[in-house]
Amino acid sequence: MTDAPLLEPKDCALLFADQQAGLAFGVGSIDRQILLNNVIALAKTATAFNLPVIASTSATKVYSGPLMPAISAVLPGIAPIERRNMNVWEDDHAREAILATGRRRLIVSGLLTEACVSFTVLSALAAGLEVYVVGDACGGLTTVGHDLALRRMEAAGARPTSWIQVLLELQRDWTRRETYDHARAIVEAHGGGYGIGLSYARDMIHPT
After folding, report:
1. What is the third-level CATH fold of 10-173?
2. Is 18 buried (19+), middle (13-18) or exposed (0-12) by CB count in 10 A?
3. Percentage of the chain with pLDDT > 90?
4. Whether 116 is catalytic
5. According to the model, what pLDDT value does residue 207 have?
6. C-alpha span between 50 and 43 (Å, rounded)
7. Quick one: the chain helix, strand, coil %, rounded to 5?
8. Residues 166 and 7: beta-carbon distance below 8 Å
9. pLDDT tens digits, 129-174
10. Contact at 8 Å (CB) between 46 and 86?
């Protein structure tokens, strides 16, 4: 695998695959509240940097439920594309929506890592896209299953990452004023100790 340039907003699109409560119930690889925090942070990041977002859902009426409301609230203009199969790439409407963005770098978050995420990523890679899998914004049935799926995707050429790395990679320079306020707010709200530190620095440290 050759080294790729760092992520730039103009090159990237974001896919949410089956971020639905019915599937989240089965997640055992990560605390579900932490997972939701990470997914919301990633959605806010996409909004802050104007990334095209595609959301796809499956079995909404019979098992999985709609796109989780907390995610929908961050992405009010996104209408999820419903499918019947597990692989987003094998659904004509979803695949065409991804390709219609014109972006060749696809950032993926979804449930479950062992199925809908990995099948989609492997197919997108085979179609020539550069794919980044946000490991801490995906959930697997077990830690072992999640890790094995990530390893399989990485072996096929996918690039594993985390939501905070995506945000910081897109921002990169805190003097980029057009996205500074949004990026900082996301870190403060969702970045744990790092966010606490940023809040402290803003409120307590005053350069002379």
Report:
1. Rossmann fold (3.40.50)
2. buried
3. 90
4. yes
5. 59
6. 10
7. 50, 15, 30
8. yes
9. 999 999 999 999 999 999 999 999 999 999 999 999 999 999 999 8
10. no
| Residues whose CB is less than 8 angstroms from the CB of residue 25 and which lie 6 or more positions away in sequence, other chains included | none
Q: How long is the chain?
A: 208
Q: How confident is the model at residue 74 (pLDDT cuts 50, 70, 90)?
A: very high
Active-site entry in 116, 133, 138, 153: 116
Query: 150: phi > 0 → left, psi -120 to 50 → alpha, else beta; which?
Result: alpha
Check residue 151 and report its DSSP letter: H
Rounded Cα–Cα distance for residues 135 and 147 (Å): 9
Q: Residue 112: is the preceding peptide bond cis (ω within 30°)?
A: yes
pTM of this structure: 0.94
- At residue 164, what is the residue type? I
Asked whether the beta carbons of 156 and 41 are under 8 A apart, the reply is no
What are the tens digits of pLDDT across the range 171-205?
A: 999 899 999 999 999 999 999 998 888 888 877 87
Which residue type, as a one-letter code, is found at position 75? Answer: L
Cβ atoms of 136 and 165 closer than 8 Å: no
Distance between start and end Cα atoms, the chain: 47
Taking each continuous run of H as one helix and of E as one strand, the counts in the chain are 9, 6
Helix (H), strand (E), coil (C) string for 40-89: HHHHHHHHHCCCCEEEEEECCCCCCCCECHHHHHHCCCCCCEEECCCCHH
